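Repro:
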Amino acid sequence: MSLFTDGADAEQDDARSRGRRIGWLLLAVTVFGVLGMAVLPSPYVIERPGPVFDTLGTVSVDGEEVPLITIPSEPTYPTEGSLSLLTVNVLGNPEAQPSWFEVATAWLDPEQSVVPLESVFPPGLSTDDRREQSRIEMENSQQEAVAAALRAIGEPYESRLYVVEAQEGGASVGVLEADDVILSIEGEPVRDVTALRAAIAENGTGSPVLLGVERDGRELTVEVTPRLSEGENRVPVIGVLVAGDYEFPFEVDIELSNVGGPSAGMMFALGIIDKLTPGSLAGGAEVAGTGTIAADGTVGPIGGIVQKMYGAVDAGAEVFLAPAGNCDEVVGSIPEGLEVFRVATLDEAIGVLQTIADDADRDALARCGS
């Protein structure tokens, strides 16, 4: 056996050693590069199921359990089962975007959705702006829910619309002012937010709309040319925050803190009706649902419906009321054990619940995809 190493063998050993070092170096660079990318902020936010609230039940206020809906001056009736509203938690905002690792994890979870940041926070809208907008939308939703519930049971009321503020950079700056009362659009009386939005959408962005306004006790007519909204679903808007000012025959108190947006409207209305009418609206069934509500009873689409269906299942609901406008998202995404019905109006939602309460045939009820 030779005690000496051939020069060619030594060179080959050095080459193999260098190759291994380079290979490990490339692997390390790749691993650290991937890890570095994983913690970088992404241009997305993550939607996931949020808290569930039974409109027939109670909520905690300052450590005390109080009814979510209270009607102090009117006779109310015992209820059974649940009529729950659903919420969506959003992970991320313009100031704190989720990492790519969090986004990748959410993509693999059917209960979560990954959506572009600008679809939730349009450019120029800060987190505080969105929070304030959501707060106003929740207040409007509650008022519209009371109006829709009273309409459904035949109780009359009075209403009007007023401007909260003209949004900076919007079409109404310099035209509409805070506290202006909107009386009409294109000569037609308007009494609720939904009707105003529908009329603006019908007008489009090609020509101005005529608004009848009351300001400081004087009536005047102004013109505003709608513009397309920011975000994913662009619609004609006039750039104002408006609220409904209703004169109801009695007080309805809704206690729900730290929840914004308009999507609980239909369930608020159903809860109010159930409390004001004898018997159980759904016969004691565990029901959840979502959808905006207009004073005329129209149920509108909402965001995050897939997360809300999973939230309903997690809360023990067996029946889910889905807005007709969300059916495209519902089909193919219904969690196991949940029966989903399609509703376009409050009257249709009441009809579904009465069918369930009567233990009648549900085959004739509308469903998404049928």
